Amino acid sequence: MMINDELWKKALGGIETEISRANFLTWFKNTHIIEHSENTITIGVPSNFVKEWLENKYHKYILKSLRNISPDIRVINYTIASENLKIDQKLKIQKESPPPPEEQLEFKDFNLDPNTNLNPRYTLETFIVGPFNELAYAAALEVIKNLGKALNPLFIYGGVGLGKTHLLQAIGNTIHIKDPRKRVYYITSEKFSNEIVSSIQNHNIHNFKEKYRDYDLLIIDDVQFFGGKVKTQEEFFYTFNTLYESGKQVVFSSDRPPKSIPDIEERLRSRLEAGAYIDISEPEYETRLAILKSKTLEKKLDISEKVLEVIASVVQKNIRELEGALNTIHMQSVYHNRILTPDEAKVILSKNTRPKINITPAQIIKNVAEFYDIPERMMFERTRKTEIVKPRQIAMFLIREDLGGSYPFIGQKFNGMDHTTAIHAYEKIINDLKKNSTLEEELRSIREKYQVK
Predict the structure, then answer these.
(1) pLDDT tens by residue, 145-156
(2) Does residue 275 share a domain with residue 138?
């Protein structure tokens, strides 16, 4: 009998061809088969809301797809199942017959090309270009045009949800289509590291080296997670050198520039900086609206342009949050069986979005200086005195957290300080808040002046 995860993966592939992509992602994520006995299937779902929706709206598609795979199936039950139950069952399956990591079911991996590990949906045609990412896009085109000869390595960095993964995979997909003979491979830094550990444990590190040193284009996502992993850094250093010296292309992404990645060897850092490193900032309103329009067409959603304008105005940080808001509005529209009005969209989004505040970075800096009783001018001085550094870091944190300012923007507000200083300040306050309740009270007091709780 086919194991549950394999059966459900194949069934989902059939269901996806019957319904819209947006509905598929909305209603079938975090679902799984928890029991298969004779002619009955029990499907675990994350909530009662999803349970009712699958029973009433998609039961016939689920039954059809499952019976195409296993004609004996006659009955389908739905039950609310916690993630812990799913994990327990996966562990049980692994004990009986442990599958290799790349064969384990992941919702987001259904459409991956098995040879390149790329998602074919990520293309240059679907990548929206605006002032916030046009330099990174131009660099991607240059790499495609002169693979291994220009901008090698290419290092693209920026905050979460800004389209780095899309652009990296679009580079890979374009090269793969342009010349199928080119060996292209995409992998996250975490999976790369896991493969190294597995290779060492299984005494086949030689196979690992042969695999990764034979690619024409190697793409590694979220390379900041190499920090602190000594063996991973060592193996990758030699892999990179082999590829580079052979004229092969390497492309990276990270949430920060190479010099700001902690706990990596200087020789590796110098390799990461050897080509071009380019940042992607936060999208401005016009680009946010263009992205929403593109996603609406791609997913065939029935959402008015006025509502899209509301989303673009309310959600300002990144593309991932834009898509999440779009899916939320769509789900509500489907549930109520009508197109939502702009006012209804505002109400829905307001429940998940921090209210907009009328305060400027200059006012935040002034408030922080007053709270800590230091002259405002000292907030801009390049000093390492604790009594100045702490207030400055807090001001940078608040501009980032409450106004959504990009790191380069924050640096500019402090007499042109480097954006990495803003990154460090933000992360320092985030870490300090986890262990310092006094700091939390201080932030609350400062924020009371502009009503951010």
Answers:
(1) 999 988 999 999
(2) yes
